[in-house]
Amino acid sequence: MPTGGGKSLCYQIPALLRPGTGIIVSPLIALMQDQVSALREAGVRAAFLNSSLPAAEANAVERGLAAGDYDLLYVAPERLLMPRFLQQLERLQASAQLALFAIDEAHCVSQWGHDFRPEYMQLSLLHERFPGVPRIALTATADAVTREEIVQRLGLDGARLFVSSFDRPNIRYRIVEKANARAQLLSFLRAEHMGDAGIVYCMSRRKVEETAAWLIEQGVNALPYHAGMDAKTRNLHQARFQREEGIVMVATIAFGMGIDKPDVRFVAHMDLPKSIEGYYQETGRAGRDGLPADAWMAYGLGDVVNQRRMIDASTAELQFKRIASTKLDALLGLCEASSCRRVRLLAYFDEVSAPCGNCDVCLEPPQVWDGTVAAQKALSCVYRTGQRFGAAHLIDVLLGKETERVQQWGHRELSTFGVGTELEEKVWRAVFRQLIAQGLLEVDHSSYGSLKLAESSRAVLTGGQAVQMRQVQVGKAKAAAKRPTTQGARQAAGLDADAARLWERLRAWRAAIAKEHGVPAYVVFHDATLAELARLRPNDEAGLAQISGVGQRKLERYGAALLELLRD
Predict the structure, then answer these.
(1) Residues 548, 534: contact at Cβ < 8 Å?
(2) Are residues 108 and 63 in the same domain?
């Protein structure tokens, strides 16, 4: 099921209905804490057990487990695999007090995946040591190959497989050609998301620090997060992002997995991810409340070169490198798509769909042009310069620029010198990018990222194959179609001016309650629940009970205060 699609309910409800405790295996400390806080708010007996707990608290949780104090216990895989803890589970099994095992983020078992965790490979022991206890594995990002691997490695042969739609229709996908990525990001934020919570992903720790500092200078409430920071600062920044309104977290992919914050209005990528699975999971952290959200990415030729270099330079075995290259190729295809991005994205997960009308390609369809001649010129230039230069130098040759390097290598004398002046530099960058994406050029990292002809380029050079290309916009970029800011989110929820004022009062009340209880605001009520309260303004408990997100426990706890506020 997609991120935010309700996977947790698939094990929470059975764990409540069956005798004993449900054991949920999760690699995500932040998600454990979030879910346990939310469950306790809803009146469920829940706890977690991981490395963040001091020894005395961990011992108290284990005693509570033995005493049957919990409906749900979240554990890290490392803790689960400890012999002492397994023995405790065996004692519970002997007294029929194990309700089920849920293996969350099950794609972590895939050694070829983007989030591989070695401990997950050992979770097959649940099948061997507890054969009578039901098991369920859940994930948001498994393609067909990964699903097969989950079944095999977790001993789930014969289990039923449920695959819902991967679509998140409230997310608008947008990929822009990278020019000045910082300025492009700031323009996107100022036009559409000032005051909104969001995540900006960068590839390196240094870039995270520099981007966060620059955004702060521009008046954006930003915080950095990466694995190189000390744990105290990381935890503080994560807690602020979860509990405060409108913070932009600038982070490496070390941040976000398991963050259950529902009102993230955008996820921006300053660099190309490694795969569609990674991109899908990271963008899926936006708009979990169902309100409109954006997935924005700036992408350029340098990103392709860097990703290829990292694959080639890794010490992984050849099979892993081949799979990583295939996954990167699929992502490049998404970036260079001239048809609906959502259709391509869902097709990767074996889901057939129609054009969405909510991506940049659908909203502003790019023109496609016959790039055969341009491709021949570019490929010929690669060949005649000895297949030892990157795109920047090749473009200089095609445009007839007499740079120092052009003179140094004598490339002014080549037949391809100056043959490309009919196209702008920006267009040539797109040509080279698309030639790589189409598999006609390869990046050779043994010679510092130079471009080489792929075998498939022969047919283009001899005139046997045409090349279609995506038109790039030349000149000043058009302003993006406006998307909801915080104000827009209210309008999207159908609130008039009076309801909007009430919504703000409800948010202020929620913030005070959250601070008092020491939990993130969304654990008390989601924005969508507050919007429905502001729009319908129920005047008694029966009316409150009809609002989505107001369960029996929250009605008992907050009903009187809400009714008083609504009447005022």
Answers:
(1) no
(2) yes
pLDDT digits (tens, 9 = 90+) for 205-228: 999 999 999 999 999 999 999 989
Whether residue 161 is contained in a domain is answered as no
CA distance 487 to 481: 16
Dihedral angle of Cα 543, 545, 550, 554, to the nearest 10 degrees: 110
* Residue reference for tokens 């605001």: 521
Per-residue pLDDT band for 474 (boundaries 50, 70, 90) equals low
Q: Which residue do the tokens 């130079």 mark? A: 450
Domain span holding position 259: 171-299+337-363
Q: Which residues pair with 468 in a beta bridge?
A: 370
d(CA 554, CA 8): 19
Q: What is the pLDDT of residues 314-348, one digit of tens each?
A: 887 887 887 888 888 889 889 988 889 999 999 88
Number of domains forming the structure of the chain:
4
Percentage of the chain beyond pLDDT 90 is 58
Tokens representing 405 are 């390097």
Tokens of 227: 């694995």
- Same-domain status, 356 and 240: yes
Answer whether residue 38 is part of any domain. yes
> Whole-angstrom Cα distance, residue 391 to residue 395?
6
Strand partners of residue 201: 251, 269
Residue 20 and residue 68 in contact, taking contact as beta carbons nearer than 8 Å: yes
Each residue of 242-252: pLDDT tens digit?
888 899 999 99
444 and 410, same structural domain? yes
Task: Kindly report which listed range (175-184, 325-334, 538-547) carries the lowest average pLDDT score.
Answer: 325-334
3-state secondary structure of 267: strand
Last residue of a domain, one of 104, 126, 153: 153
358, 377: one domain: no
Tokens 């992002």 sit on residue: 241
CATH of the domain at 132: 3.40.50.300
Other CB atoms within 10 A of residue 464 CB: 8
Looking at the structure, do residues 50 and 68 belong to the same domain, yes or no? yes
Per-residue 3-state assignment (H helix, E strand, C coil) for 505-542: HHHHHHHHHHHHHCCCHHHHCCHHHHHHHHHHCCCCHH
Q: What is the rounded distance in angstroms from the CA atom of residue 428 to the CA atom of residue 392?
A: 9
Q: Is the pLDDT of residue 370 over 90?
A: yes
Does residue 244 sit within a domain?
Answer: yes
Which residue did the predictor score with more confidence, 114 or 523? 523
Q: Which of 225, 228, 221 is nearest to 252 (CA)?
A: 225
- Give pLDDT tens digits for 62-87: 999 999 999 999 999 999 999 999 99
pLDDT (0 to 100) of residue 493? 55
Q: How far apart are CA 105 and CA 179, in angstroms?
A: 36
